[in-house]
Amino acid sequence: MPSFGPRRPRSASHAARVGALSCLLALVPASGRADEPPPAAPPADVSGQVPDVVVEAPEPRYVAPTRRDKIGRIWAPVLINDKGPFRLVLDTGATNSAVTAAVAATLGLTPTNEHSVMLRGVTGSRQVPTISIDSLVVGDLELRSKRLPIVVDALGGAEGVLGTEGLQDKRIYIDFRHDKITIFRSHQQRPPPGFVVIPVHIENGLLLIADIRVGTVRAKAIIDTGGQATLANVPMREALEKRLRAEDIKADEVTGATLDVQLGDRVAMPPIRIGELTIRGANITVGDMFIFQHWKMTKEPALLIGMDVLGLLDTMIIDYRRHELQVLQRGAGSG
Protein backbone atom coordinates (compact mmCIF):
# COMPACT_ATOMS: atom_id res chain seq x y z
CA MET A 1 0.00 0.00 0.00
CA PRO A 2 1.46 3.39 -0.89
CA SER A 3 2.53 5.70 1.87
CA PHE A 4 1.96 9.44 1.71
CA GLY A 5 4.21 10.38 4.59
CA PRO A 6 7.55 12.17 4.19
CA ARG A 7 8.76 12.06 0.60
CA ARG A 8 11.54 9.64 -0.26
CA PRO A 9 14.26 10.70 -2.73
CA ARG A 10 13.41 9.63 -6.28
CA SER A 11 15.28 9.37 -9.49
CA ALA A 12 15.19 12.55 -11.54
CA SER A 13 14.11 10.45 -14.53
CA HIS A 14 10.76 9.93 -12.82
CA ALA A 15 10.05 13.61 -12.37
CA ALA A 16 7.83 15.36 -14.89
CA ARG A 17 7.67 19.14 -15.06
CA VAL A 18 4.11 20.44 -14.97
CA GLY A 19 3.88 24.12 -15.89
CA ALA A 20 0.87 25.48 -14.03
CA LEU A 21 0.42 29.18 -14.63
CA SER A 22 -2.73 29.54 -12.62
CA CYS A 23 -4.17 31.92 -10.18
CA LEU A 24 -2.86 35.43 -9.90
CA LEU A 25 -5.15 35.95 -6.93
CA ALA A 26 -5.21 38.93 -4.61
CA LEU A 27 -2.68 41.47 -5.74
CA VAL A 28 -1.75 43.13 -2.47
CA PRO A 29 0.36 46.33 -2.35
CA ALA A 30 3.80 45.27 -1.19
CA SER A 31 6.29 47.15 0.92
CA GLY A 32 10.00 47.26 0.27
CA ARG A 33 11.85 46.76 -2.99
CA ALA A 34 10.22 44.34 -5.45
CA ASP A 35 12.01 41.96 -7.74
CA GLU A 36 13.45 43.65 -10.78
CA PRO A 37 11.25 43.32 -13.87
CA PRO A 38 12.26 40.57 -16.30
CA PRO A 39 14.17 41.49 -19.44
CA ALA A 40 11.89 42.75 -22.18
CA ALA A 41 11.22 40.40 -25.07
CA PRO A 42 10.78 41.69 -28.63
CA PRO A 43 7.73 43.98 -28.77
CA ALA A 44 4.38 42.57 -29.81
CA ASP A 45 2.78 43.33 -33.16
CA VAL A 46 0.58 46.41 -32.86
CA SER A 47 -0.63 46.48 -36.45
CA GLY A 48 -4.19 45.63 -35.44
CA GLN A 49 -3.82 41.94 -36.32
CA VAL A 50 -3.42 39.24 -33.69
CA PRO A 51 0.03 37.75 -34.32
CA ASP A 52 0.44 33.99 -34.61
CA VAL A 53 2.59 33.06 -31.62
CA VAL A 54 4.45 29.84 -32.35
CA VAL A 55 5.12 27.75 -29.24
CA GLU A 56 6.11 24.30 -30.45
CA ALA A 57 4.11 24.27 -33.66
CA PRO A 58 1.70 26.66 -35.36
CA GLU A 59 -1.23 27.27 -33.01
CA PRO A 60 -4.77 28.53 -33.36
CA ARG A 61 -5.04 32.27 -32.78
CA TYR A 62 -7.40 32.24 -29.83
CA VAL A 63 -8.52 28.80 -28.62
CA ALA A 64 -6.40 25.64 -28.80
CA PRO A 65 -7.92 22.30 -27.72
CA THR A 66 -6.13 19.73 -25.58
CA ARG A 67 -4.62 16.94 -27.65
CA ARG A 68 -2.56 13.90 -26.84
CA ASP A 69 0.72 15.83 -27.17
CA LYS A 70 -0.36 19.37 -26.27
CA ILE A 71 -2.35 21.01 -23.47
CA GLY A 72 -5.09 23.38 -24.61
CA ARG A 73 -5.03 27.14 -24.18
CA ILE A 74 -7.52 30.00 -24.23
CA TRP A 75 -6.28 33.38 -25.41
CA ALA A 76 -8.31 36.58 -25.53
CA PRO A 77 -7.47 39.41 -27.99
CA VAL A 78 -7.20 42.41 -25.67
CA LEU A 79 -6.71 46.08 -26.49
CA ILE A 80 -4.64 48.01 -23.93
CA ASN A 81 -4.52 51.80 -24.26
CA ASP A 82 -6.07 51.29 -27.72
CA LYS A 83 -3.03 49.26 -28.84
CA GLY A 84 -2.86 45.60 -29.75
CA PRO A 85 -4.66 43.36 -29.68
CA PHE A 86 -2.46 41.44 -27.26
CA ARG A 87 -3.08 37.76 -26.60
CA LEU A 88 -3.78 37.29 -22.89
CA VAL A 89 -4.53 33.92 -21.32
CA LEU A 90 -8.08 33.81 -19.96
CA ASP A 91 -7.56 32.83 -16.31
CA THR A 92 -10.70 32.14 -14.27
CA GLY A 93 -8.44 31.56 -11.25
CA ALA A 94 -7.00 35.08 -11.34
CA THR A 95 -8.72 38.08 -9.78
CA ASN A 96 -6.56 40.55 -11.68
CA SER A 97 -5.01 40.81 -15.12
CA ALA A 98 -1.27 41.04 -15.75
CA VAL A 99 1.07 41.50 -18.71
CA THR A 100 4.63 40.65 -19.64
CA ALA A 101 7.50 43.13 -19.79
CA ALA A 102 7.32 42.94 -23.60
CA VAL A 103 3.79 44.36 -23.56
CA ALA A 104 4.90 47.18 -21.27
CA ALA A 105 7.69 47.99 -23.72
CA THR A 106 5.26 48.00 -26.66
CA LEU A 107 3.00 50.40 -24.76
CA GLY A 108 5.97 52.64 -24.02
CA LEU A 109 5.55 52.14 -20.26
CA THR A 110 8.29 51.47 -17.73
CA PRO A 111 7.43 49.05 -14.88
CA THR A 112 7.82 50.69 -11.48
CA ASN A 113 8.60 49.23 -8.08
CA GLU A 114 6.96 52.21 -6.35
CA HIS A 115 3.55 50.52 -6.67
CA SER A 116 4.70 46.90 -6.54
CA VAL A 117 2.19 44.21 -5.63
CA MET A 118 2.30 40.69 -4.26
CA LEU A 119 1.67 38.18 -7.02
CA ARG A 120 0.23 34.95 -5.60
CA GLY A 121 0.50 31.86 -7.76
CA VAL A 122 -0.05 28.12 -7.44
CA THR A 123 3.33 27.45 -5.88
CA GLY A 124 4.28 30.67 -4.10
CA SER A 125 4.20 34.45 -3.98
CA ARG A 126 6.46 37.20 -5.25
CA GLN A 127 6.61 40.99 -5.28
CA VAL A 128 6.45 42.34 -8.82
CA PRO A 129 6.51 45.79 -10.43
CA THR A 130 3.46 47.27 -12.16
CA ILE A 131 2.46 49.61 -14.97
CA SER A 132 -0.46 52.04 -15.04
CA ILE A 133 -2.82 51.83 -18.03
CA ASP A 134 -5.74 53.94 -19.16
CA SER A 135 -7.90 51.19 -20.62
CA LEU A 136 -8.23 47.44 -21.16
CA VAL A 137 -10.95 46.28 -23.58
CA VAL A 138 -12.05 42.93 -24.95
CA GLY A 139 -15.57 42.38 -26.22
CA ASP A 140 -18.05 43.89 -23.75
CA LEU A 141 -15.42 43.96 -20.99
CA GLU A 142 -13.96 47.43 -20.45
CA LEU A 143 -11.71 48.43 -17.55
CA ARG A 144 -10.38 51.95 -17.01
CA SER A 145 -7.44 53.40 -15.05
CA LYS A 146 -5.91 50.11 -14.02
CA ARG A 147 -2.55 49.11 -12.61
CA LEU A 148 -1.25 45.85 -14.11
CA PRO A 149 1.45 43.64 -12.56
CA ILE A 150 4.33 42.34 -14.68
CA VAL A 151 4.27 38.54 -14.92
CA VAL A 152 7.36 36.58 -15.92
CA ASP A 153 5.58 33.79 -17.76
CA ALA A 154 2.12 33.75 -19.31
CA LEU A 155 1.69 30.17 -20.48
CA GLY A 156 3.37 29.25 -23.71
CA GLY A 157 4.00 32.46 -25.60
CA ALA A 158 1.00 34.52 -24.46
CA GLU A 159 1.50 38.17 -23.59
CA GLY A 160 -0.20 38.24 -20.22
CA VAL A 161 -3.19 37.08 -18.22
CA LEU A 162 -6.81 38.23 -18.38
CA GLY A 163 -8.28 37.91 -14.89
CA THR A 164 -11.87 37.91 -13.71
CA GLU A 165 -12.25 41.56 -12.71
CA GLY A 166 -15.29 43.00 -14.47
CA LEU A 167 -16.72 39.62 -15.49
CA GLN A 168 -19.47 39.40 -12.85
CA ASP A 169 -22.19 40.19 -15.42
CA LYS A 170 -20.50 38.57 -18.42
CA ARG A 171 -20.91 35.44 -20.52
CA ILE A 172 -17.80 33.95 -22.12
CA TYR A 173 -18.23 31.72 -25.18
CA ILE A 174 -15.21 29.48 -25.85
CA ASP A 175 -15.33 27.33 -29.00
CA PHE A 176 -12.33 25.00 -29.21
CA ARG A 177 -13.37 23.52 -32.55
CA HIS A 178 -13.76 26.84 -34.35
CA ASP A 179 -10.95 28.79 -32.62
CA LYS A 180 -13.29 31.42 -31.17
CA ILE A 181 -13.73 33.31 -27.91
CA THR A 182 -16.37 35.98 -27.26
CA ILE A 183 -16.96 38.01 -24.09
CA PHE A 184 -20.30 39.78 -23.86
CA ARG A 185 -22.94 40.73 -21.32
CA SER A 186 -25.02 37.88 -20.00
CA HIS A 187 -28.73 38.04 -20.68
CA GLN A 188 -29.39 34.90 -18.62
CA GLN A 189 -29.40 32.75 -21.76
CA ARG A 190 -30.23 29.10 -21.37
CA PRO A 191 -27.74 26.60 -22.78
CA PRO A 192 -27.91 25.79 -26.51
CA PRO A 193 -29.29 22.36 -27.53
CA GLY A 194 -27.00 19.49 -26.63
CA PHE A 195 -25.13 21.40 -23.94
CA VAL A 196 -24.74 20.09 -20.39
CA VAL A 197 -25.12 22.50 -17.45
CA ILE A 198 -22.66 22.45 -14.55
CA PRO A 199 -23.79 24.65 -11.62
CA VAL A 200 -20.99 26.56 -9.91
CA HIS A 201 -20.60 28.60 -6.75
CA ILE A 202 -18.84 31.92 -7.05
CA GLU A 203 -16.51 32.52 -4.12
CA ASN A 204 -13.43 34.57 -3.23
CA GLY A 205 -14.19 37.24 -5.77
CA LEU A 206 -15.19 35.44 -8.97
CA LEU A 207 -13.65 32.03 -8.34
CA LEU A 208 -15.74 29.27 -9.98
CA ILE A 209 -16.23 26.22 -7.73
CA ALA A 210 -18.21 23.09 -8.63
CA ASP A 211 -19.30 20.17 -6.47
CA ILE A 212 -17.79 16.94 -7.81
CA ARG A 213 -17.16 13.28 -7.01
CA VAL A 214 -13.84 11.53 -7.48
CA GLY A 215 -14.80 7.89 -7.33
CA THR A 216 -16.89 7.85 -4.15
CA VAL A 217 -15.17 10.90 -2.65
CA ARG A 218 -17.10 14.18 -2.52
CA ALA A 219 -14.93 17.18 -3.31
CA LYS A 220 -14.81 20.79 -4.51
CA ALA A 221 -13.36 21.67 -7.89
CA ILE A 222 -11.96 25.08 -8.86
CA ILE A 223 -12.43 25.75 -12.58
CA ASP A 224 -9.09 27.26 -13.61
CA THR A 225 -8.62 28.08 -17.28
CA GLY A 226 -5.23 29.59 -16.49
CA GLY A 227 -3.76 26.34 -15.19
CA GLN A 228 -2.19 23.84 -17.54
CA ALA A 229 -2.39 20.89 -15.15
CA THR A 230 -5.15 19.62 -12.90
CA LEU A 231 -4.02 19.50 -9.28
CA ALA A 232 -5.37 17.89 -6.10
CA ASN A 233 -4.77 18.76 -2.45
CA VAL A 234 -3.50 16.57 0.38
CA PRO A 235 -6.96 15.56 1.74
CA MET A 236 -7.81 14.23 -1.74
CA ARG A 237 -4.60 12.24 -1.74
CA GLU A 238 -5.41 10.79 1.68
CA ALA A 239 -8.99 9.94 0.67
CA LEU A 240 -7.71 7.93 -2.30
CA GLU A 241 -4.77 6.29 -0.53
CA LYS A 242 -6.29 2.81 -0.36
CA ARG A 243 -7.02 2.81 -4.10
CA LEU A 244 -3.46 3.58 -5.19
CA ARG A 245 -0.54 1.26 -5.80
CA ALA A 246 3.02 2.36 -5.12
CA GLU A 247 4.05 1.59 -8.70
CA ASP A 248 1.37 3.96 -10.04
CA ILE A 249 2.79 6.97 -8.20
CA LYS A 250 5.40 9.11 -9.96
CA ALA A 251 7.18 12.21 -8.76
CA ASP A 252 6.12 15.50 -10.34
CA GLU A 253 7.09 19.15 -10.28
CA VAL A 254 4.68 22.06 -10.50
CA THR A 255 5.94 25.48 -11.59
CA GLY A 256 3.67 28.46 -10.94
CA ALA A 257 3.44 31.98 -12.30
CA THR A 258 5.98 33.12 -9.71
CA LEU A 259 8.42 30.44 -11.00
CA ASP A 260 8.47 28.75 -7.59
CA VAL A 261 8.56 24.95 -7.88
CA GLN A 262 6.71 22.51 -5.62
CA LEU A 263 6.90 18.74 -5.61
CA GLY A 264 3.92 16.42 -5.86
CA ASP A 265 2.89 12.91 -6.84
CA ARG A 266 1.26 12.17 -10.18
CA VAL A 267 -1.42 9.51 -9.79
CA ALA A 268 -4.21 7.94 -11.84
CA MET A 269 -7.60 9.11 -10.60
CA PRO A 270 -10.85 7.15 -10.50
CA PRO A 271 -13.69 8.62 -12.60
CA ILE A 272 -14.34 12.30 -11.86
CA ARG A 273 -17.98 13.33 -12.08
CA ILE A 274 -18.83 17.00 -12.56
CA GLY A 275 -22.59 17.31 -12.87
CA GLU A 276 -23.54 15.11 -15.83
CA LEU A 277 -19.97 14.94 -17.14
CA THR A 278 -17.63 12.06 -16.33
CA ILE A 279 -13.87 12.31 -16.79
CA ARG A 280 -12.08 8.97 -17.01
CA GLY A 281 -8.42 8.07 -17.07
CA ALA A 282 -7.20 11.38 -15.64
CA ASN A 283 -3.67 11.55 -14.23
CA ILE A 284 -3.45 14.33 -11.68
CA THR A 285 -0.67 15.81 -9.57
CA VAL A 286 -1.45 15.78 -5.85
CA GLY A 287 0.44 17.75 -3.23
CA ASP A 288 0.48 20.45 -0.60
CA MET A 289 0.38 23.31 -3.08
CA PHE A 290 0.63 26.90 -1.87
CA ILE A 291 -2.56 27.89 -3.65
CA PHE A 292 -4.73 25.50 -1.61
CA GLN A 293 -3.34 27.03 1.57
CA HIS A 294 -4.07 30.53 0.30
CA TRP A 295 -7.66 29.62 -0.52
CA LYS A 296 -8.03 27.82 2.83
CA MET A 297 -8.86 24.58 1.04
CA THR A 298 -6.67 22.26 3.10
CA LYS A 299 -9.20 20.37 5.22
CA GLU A 300 -11.52 18.79 2.64
CA PRO A 301 -10.71 17.11 -0.72
CA ALA A 302 -10.36 19.61 -3.55
CA LEU A 303 -9.19 19.78 -7.16
CA LEU A 304 -7.99 22.60 -9.34
CA ILE A 305 -9.21 21.62 -12.83
CA GLY A 306 -6.91 22.98 -15.51
CA MET A 307 -6.72 23.03 -19.28
CA ASP A 308 -5.53 19.43 -19.58
CA VAL A 309 -9.16 18.54 -18.78
CA LEU A 310 -11.13 21.63 -19.86
CA GLY A 311 -9.46 21.63 -23.28
CA LEU A 312 -11.02 18.25 -24.03
CA LEU A 313 -14.41 19.90 -24.45
CA ASP A 314 -15.86 21.04 -27.76
CA THR A 315 -17.38 24.28 -26.42
CA MET A 316 -17.50 25.86 -22.97
CA ILE A 317 -19.68 28.79 -21.95
CA ILE A 318 -19.03 30.50 -18.62
CA ASP A 319 -22.06 32.51 -17.51
CA TYR A 320 -21.24 34.44 -14.36
CA ARG A 321 -24.76 35.83 -13.94
CA ARG A 322 -26.33 32.36 -14.13
CA HIS A 323 -23.60 30.82 -11.95
CA GLU A 324 -23.07 27.97 -14.36
CA LEU A 325 -20.92 26.39 -17.03
CA GLN A 326 -22.65 25.27 -20.21
CA VAL A 327 -20.50 22.70 -21.97
CA LEU A 328 -20.62 20.64 -25.14
CA GLN A 329 -18.55 17.48 -25.17
CA ARG A 330 -16.13 16.87 -27.99
CA GLY A 331 -17.79 14.95 -30.80
CA ALA A 332 -21.27 16.11 -29.78
CA GLY A 333 -21.27 19.30 -31.89
CA SER A 334 -22.42 19.84 -35.40
CA GLY A 335 -21.27 22.05 -38.27
Derived structural class: mainly beta
Estimate the helix proportion, in percent: under 10%
Largest sheet: 11 strands, mixed
Order of helices and strands: EEEEEEHEEEEEEEEEEEHEEEEEHEHEE
DSSP helical segment count: 4
Overall geometry comes to globular
What integer is the average pLDDT?
79
Oligomer description: single chain
Tell me the strand percentage band.
Answer: 35-45%
Distance between the termini: 49 Å
Radius of gyration: 19 Å
Number of strands: 25
Unreliable sequence segments: 1-57
Keywords:
335 residues; mainly beta; 11-stranded mixed sheet; 9-stranded mixed sheet; 25 strands; globular; disordered N terminus
Describe the 3D structure:
There is one protein chain. By secondary structure, the chain is mainly β. Helix content is 6%, strand content 41%. The protein has helices at residues 101-106, 234-239, 290-294, 307-310, and strands at 16-19, 28-29, 63-64, 73-80, 83-90, 98-99, 112-120, 125-138, 141-149, 160-162, 170-175, 180-185, 196-199, 201-203, 207-214, 217-223, 231-232, 250-255, 261-268, 272-274, 277-279, 283-286, 302-305, 313-319, 324-329. The relative contact order is 0.21. Residues 1-57 have low confidence and may be disordered.
SSE topology sketch:
Elements: E1 16-19, E2 28-29, E3 63-64, E4 73-80, E5 83-90, E6 98-99, H1 101-106, E7 112-120, E8 125-138, E9 141-149, E10 160-162, E11 170-175, E12 180-185, E13 196-199, E14 201-203, E15 207-214, E16 217-223, E17 231-232, H2 234-239, E18 250-255, E19 261-268, E20 272-274, E21 277-279, E22 283-286, H3 290-294, E23 302-305, H4 307-310, E24 313-319, E25 324-329
Parallel strand pairs: 1-18, 5-10, 16-23, 17-22
Antiparallel strand pairs: 2-7, 3-4, 4-5, 4-8, 6-10, 7-8, 8-9, 11-12, 11-24, 13-25, 14-15, 15-16, 15-20, 17-23, 18-19, 19-22, 20-21, 24-25
